Amino acid sequence: MPICSHLKAGLRAIPVKSKTRDMGTLVNYATDKGVAVLTLNDAPENAFTHEMFKELDACILEARFDDDVHVLLITGHGDRHFSTGANLNMLKEADETFKYYFYLHANETLLRLESTPKLVVAAINGQCISGGLELALACDIRVARLGPFTLGLPEVSLGMLPGMGGTHRLSSLVGKGAAMQLLVEGRSLSVEEALAAGVIHKAWKADTHEGFTRQVLDYAHEFCPPNRAAMAVGLTKRAAQAGGESALEQGLALERELQQRLFASQDAKEGILAFTQKRKPLFRAR
Predict the structure, then answer these.
(1) Catalytic residues
(2) Could you tell me which residues come within 8 angstroms of residue 64 by beta carbon, excluding any fewer than 6 positions away?
């Protein structure tokens, strides 16, 4: 059964030496210096099918269980599309039962991505609408390439609603009022508008898709050893996510437990020692 795909022609999108896995066709998987790169690869729009989500889910688990992976980077293949969401031709032919379980599995996959205690960066290389934006919203940091691309959740114009967590995650991100307007109008934003609204964190100019991917990959490397204590990054993510969904007392209790785990790590000892010795720490993810 295909799982994650070997980065073949798509390897050109990451102009570096990468370790690859030969495991599928719709999601390419490669690792580079602590970063797992997952590339949606179903031209022309990288639209989601059940088969793609099964591969994406497997790739998330592959990265989660790999102790040498500290950051996940998700992008789309090609110059024009990150993803346009669910494949409408698939939905047109499917019955209601299939559609229900398709969206249930999509919810489970994005929750698995969101709850993985490793940083997840979305490299939005092009059009990012509907489920494509919902995938990006489940990532921790969103970086978009400047260009004539749009980001949005226009499902209402099709008589539907965002079914992969978009209503909840967008409301949590930009506030209920701003999210409500975007959702009911079904309006898409330019990259610049998305940045100003807080939907994305960064917008970078790049002459080529390869150049953009290289920029985001370099950024992702900043969160890997020896530059950062990867365990601290991952547990900070967990504390922040859980804290936003629980009462203050419960959030503080989780913080204390996670902090205690970090105090027992070699990286925390190295960080404190380096600070007292006035030198840069050398983290080893231990």
Answers:
(1) 134, 155
(2) 112, 116, 118
Residue pointed to by tokens 């989601």? 48
Average model confidence (pLDDT) across the chain:
90
Q: Is 82 exposed, middle or buried (0-12, 13-18, 19+ CB in 10 A)?
A: buried
Q: Which residue has the higher pLDDT, 79 or 246?
A: 79
pLDDT in tens, 198-233: 999 999 999 999 999 999 999 999 999 998 999 999
For the question of whether the overall pTM of this predicted structure is more than 0.85, the answer is yes
Confidence of residue 243 (pLDDT cuts 50, 70, 90): confident
Per-residue pLDDT averaged across 232-248, rounded?
87
